[in-house]
Design goal:
CATH class of the largest domain: Alpha Beta
Oligomer: single chain
Distance between the termini: 43 Å
Strand content: 35-45%
Number of domains: 2
Structural class: mainly beta
CATH topology of the largest domain: endopeptidase fold (from Nostoc punctiforme)
Radius of gyration: 19 Å
Mean pLDDT: 94
Strand order of the largest sheet: 15-16-17-18-19-20
Number of helices: 4
CATH architecture of the largest domain: Alpha-Beta Complex
């Protein structure tokens, strides 16, 4: 299996090998994947290492990486909204949550490619998971526009937002809302929730189609039109600006340690 790494700030992951095809997800700089198949016109089908998601991306937005670098990838992330690094001697701005794969002393060698990052890295395994830290992380995404398949501060969908935030907290989430709803432990009542619990919402057919992060038993931050803070009650979400009810609450899940309140 050919190992690869995303070498552009954000790479669209599409359902089919075509620019006209639906963007189903994204890879951000430094994310590792396996190349499963290659097609004509510069397309590769990949399986993302982090969440197992599969899709098509442009082959030239990947660079092959040797097995040792792939295996020792590491969990360090870029912490700021945008971050400056050098790729083969040229500047590149990468988004919050880019992977600093195989970095040592701020440098990495991906075969013939050289990466130099001078900034301070975020180590998820050492991250605080208290309410203040969770709010600080989520607030960095406020007003980020909604983008179907997006998972960066340049554009994000609901589950891409939750997955990225939990990546900073060293808790892996699957990619889509209905998949994330299978993780964690159920919380019976909204009044029993803690900051960082995930709230899931369904449509008229009962399918889970939306997810957000609870800031309290009365507020939720989620990606809907943009990343926003809205009110929530036992029925669901009520928009803070026009008081319209937008999402029907289905289930609440807890993945963070019980000490978080």
């Amino acid at each position: 299996m050919v190992r690869a790494i995303c070498c552009v700030p954000v790479s669209p992951l599409r359902a089919e090998p075509s620019h006209r095809s639906e963007m189903i997800s994204q890879q951000v700089f430094g994310e590792c994947s396996e190349i499963l198949e290659q097609a004509k016109d510069n397309w590769s089908r990949v399986r993302c290492t982090y969440d197992g998601y599969e899709g098509w991306c442009q082959t030239d937005q990947l660079t092959e990486i040797d097995e040792p670098e792939f295996e020792k990838g590491g969990n360090a992330l870029t912490p700021d909204w945008v971050n400056n690094l050098e790729y083969n001697g040229h500047p590149m701005m990468v988004p919050m949550g880019a992977h600093l794969t195989a970095m040592k002393g701020g440098r990495a060698h991906w075969r013939k490619n050289q990466v130099h990052f001078k900034g301070k890295a975020w180590e998820p395994a050492q991250a605080l998971r208290d309410p203040k830290s969770i709010r600080q992380l989520t607030y960095k995404f406020l007003n980020t526009p909604y983008l179907w398949g997006g998972k960066s501060v340049f554009g994000v969908d609901c589950s891409g937002f939750t997955q990225t935030i939990f990546k900073f907290l060293h808790i892996p989430l699957l990619r889509d809302a209905y998949q994330q709803a299978t993780q964690g432990e159920a919380v019976g009542f909204l009044e029993e929730t803690k900051t960082g619990d995930l709230a899931f919402f369904d449509n008229e057919e009962g399918k889970i189609t939306h997810v957000g992060i609870l800031l309290s038993a009365h507020e939720i931050i989620h990606a809907s039109v943009k990343v926003r803070i809205d009110k929530i009650d036992n029925m669901g979400i009520v928009r803070s600006d026009n008081f319209q009810r937008t999402h029907h609450l289905r289930i609440i899940k807890r993945l963070l340690p019980a000490t978080t309140s």
